[in-house]
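[recover] target loaded
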């Protein structure tokens, strides 16, 4: 049983209900607190708690906090909840049997302080104890369990969002387009961690860490929609680095709110806003400068002050943070996507313009860092107040909404593509050796890998693999690995262009792919416009339309229904396509900024939700292809010797941004077993972070 804690305003009864279901691991399903919100004539109708389970169907709990009051119209409340929820479910044909709802649906009252008022067998049941809950649930069973996944999908309101392309045009049952239709229909449910990230609301800072393809952008969009539906008076902002994400956020938020409450969002209360901004474009930094009457630095002025190219925004934010002494409180919630692209000063500015209790949600993937930034720990990121007390320290405490969420399941990329991205990104099979490595061994497990052989320890050989839990295998079941991912070395730029044009033609004419199923990524953001010009002209001569994102389209637009999208790597971030071509991939093999180039390749590979073609020319492309062949020869498992602390000093280090307390607790010289037990109990430390010998000692004590 998975408990997802939204806000209910009824803390005692919701905690009692959650505690009951957390103990009953035999029940398969979800208990949602403060979710869903159902559309009604007078606005959103709040459900206090909802159980969705294979055994029991859907159970709507109306929670009562106070003492018994015979003036409460219980039957009226239960009837209203039943009618509204039944109406929502009946909109979905798959949940009906002729005219009847095919879901077991019950609406009990749960009033844990009403000691002598239980009424279990009534048509309007009242439950006041754990015994009442158990007897009530034992009396209801759901025979139509094959509808369970669809029921969960409807509750999460995710099905419509997952389907971007309608494929009514498909004629060939075995074409790529036909297989994509099946694939898109199958990815309908959020997983437990995504559900938690969407619904659980922290009165403070919340961090969401996730792999590429784990759904961070969708999670943030759904979280905005949920918070807006639940708190329509809140002023909410979602911000990002790539302007190409703006329309995607707007689309998802609009869809989710409409599915929940059957009305448009109040866009006066939601800002989908770029991080930087300018006099012509809304941005967090630009508007902050206006509101606080400080000098705004545009790109040219900021870069002139920076010590390196691409550091201008960091300098602009640092200057603003140091200059402003008294902040205007603008927002109730701010959500930040792709936070690894920002300096700490931007996050501090966002934190500073929040009303109390400072609800800030930031999401990131360290491996999509193509700006050579490292995410500091939360304590380092937000700093201390004037008295030296830390402003932020994240803990996951039992019975409370999670402050730190890891999304370790990759739904977008197949196992071969994701393992290839990690192998090439880290240089696992690079002839000259590793390029970068996680500082903490545990992070490999955090991103969904399991140990096949050896162990994750300094100087030890280890073999890591992904299984069906962390990388669902529907892509591998429907497509051969040799088709999912192809590396191809060509002899010249001209041959690369000819190959690309020929393959795109096949995708459209034979494979039944739509134009916007295809994304062509050039890794170098500074030469992409010039480099793709010849290719786009050749496509035009074949009557195939294309766009260069942000150049031939508006900066906020990425996909267009009638065009193949060409893009540089920064604009590609946060977007996905069924068929991804990475051209000039040889530029990512080596160079003066090798780590950044490999991270660009990692990000480009993980844009694909089905197929990827990596093409280039010259000796570097040959070497890159050989590196891929080693990944393939090892069955897309990662086999390497974990570098020692001394060896890691020569590598780029990818940190799991552990808190200061976590780092202290990992120092065996200063931490006693009692200290470690305390830290494990209160959630400041994870057992997987401990050295193996310490874990063995703790196991004896537990």
């Amino acid at each position: 049983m998975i408990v997802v804690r939204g806000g209910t305003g009824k803390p005692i009864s919701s905690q009692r209900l959650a505690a009951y279901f957390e103990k009953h691991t035999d029940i398969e399903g979800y208990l949602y607190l403060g979710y869903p919100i159902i559309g009604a004539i007078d606005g959103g109708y709040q459900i206090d708690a909802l159980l969705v389970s294979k055994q029991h169907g859907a159970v709507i709990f109306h929670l009562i906090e106070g003492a018994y009051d015979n003036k409460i119209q219980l039957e009226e409340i239960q009837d209203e909840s039943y009618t509204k929820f039944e109406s929502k479910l009946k909109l979905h044909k798959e949940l009906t049997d002729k005219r009847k709802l095919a879901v077991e649906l019950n609406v009990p009252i749960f009033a844990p302080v009403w000691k002598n008022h239980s009424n279990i067998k009534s048509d309007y049941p009242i439950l006041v104890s754990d015994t009442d809950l158990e007897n009530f649930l034992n009396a209801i069973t759901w025979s139509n369990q094959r509808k369970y996944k669809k029921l969960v999908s409807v509750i999460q309101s995710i099905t419509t969002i997952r389907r971007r392309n309608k494929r009514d045009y498909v004629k060939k049952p075995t074409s790529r387009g036909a297989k994509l239709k099946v694939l898109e229909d199958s990815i309908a449910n959020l997983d437990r961690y995504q559900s938690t990230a969407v619904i659980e609301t922290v009165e403070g800072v919340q961090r969401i860490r996730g792999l590429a393809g784990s759904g961070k952008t969708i999670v943030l969009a759904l979280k905005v929609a949920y918070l807006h539906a639940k708190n329509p008076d809140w002023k909410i902002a979602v911000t990002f680095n790539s302007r190409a994400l703006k329309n995607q956020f707007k689309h998802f938020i609009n869809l989710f709110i409409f599915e929940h409450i059957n009305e448009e969002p109040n866009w006066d209360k939601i800002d989908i806003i770029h991080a930087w901004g300018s006099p012509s474009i809304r941005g967090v930094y630009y508007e902050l400068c206006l509101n606080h009457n400080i000098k705004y630095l545009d790109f040219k002025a900021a870069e002139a002050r920076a010590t390196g190219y691409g550091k201008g925004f960091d300098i602009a934010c640092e200057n603003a943070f140091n200059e402003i002494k008294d902040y205007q409180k603008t927002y109730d919630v701010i959500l930040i996507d792709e936070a690894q692209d920002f300096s700490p000063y931007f996050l501090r500015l966002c934190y500073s313009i929040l009303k109390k209790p400072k609800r800030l949600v930031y999401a990131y993937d360290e491996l999509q860092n193509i700006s050579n930034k490292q995410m500091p720990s939360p304590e380092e990121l937000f700093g201390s107040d004037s008295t030296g007390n830390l402003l932020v320290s994240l803990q996951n405490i039992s019975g409370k909404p999670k402050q730190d969420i890891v999304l370790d399941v990759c739904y977008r990329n197949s196992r071969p593509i994701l393992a290839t991205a990690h192998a090439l990104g880290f240089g696992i099979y690079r002839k000259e050796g590793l390029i970068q490595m996680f500082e903490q061994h545990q992070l490999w497990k955090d991103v969904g890998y399991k140990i096949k052989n050896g162990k994750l320890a300094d100087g030890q050989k280890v073999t890591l693999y992904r299984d069906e839990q962390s990388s669902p295998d529907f892509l591998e079941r429907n497509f051969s690995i040799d088709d999912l991912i192809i590396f191809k070395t060509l002899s010249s730029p001209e041959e690369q262009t000819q190959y690309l044009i020929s393959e795109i033609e096949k995708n459209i004419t034979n494979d039944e792919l739509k134009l916007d199923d295809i994304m062509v990524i050039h890794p170098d953001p500074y030469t992409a416009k010039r480099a793709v010009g010849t290719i786009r002209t050749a496509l035009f001569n074949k009557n195939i339309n294309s766009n260069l994102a942000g150049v031939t389209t508006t900066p906020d637009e990425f996909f267009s229904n009638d065009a193949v999208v060409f893009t540089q790597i920064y604009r590609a971030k946060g977007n996905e396509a069924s068929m991804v071509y990475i051209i000039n991939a040889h530029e990512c093999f080596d160079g003066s900024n090798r780590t950044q180039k490999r991270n660009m390749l990692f990000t480009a590979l993980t844009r694909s939700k089905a197929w990827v073609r990596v093409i280039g020319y010259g000796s570097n492309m040959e070497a890159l292809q050989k590196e891929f062949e080693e990944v393939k020869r090892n069955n897309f498992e990662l086999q390497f010797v974990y570098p020692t602390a001394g060896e890691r000093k020569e590598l780029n280090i990818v940190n799991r941004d552990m808190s200061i307390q976590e780092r202290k607790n990992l120092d065996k010289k200063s931490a006693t077993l009692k200290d470690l037990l305390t830290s494990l109990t209160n959630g400041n430390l994870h057992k997987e972070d401990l050295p193996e010998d310490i874990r063995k000692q703790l196991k004896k004590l537990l």
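[recover] notes: The longest helix spans residues 74-90.
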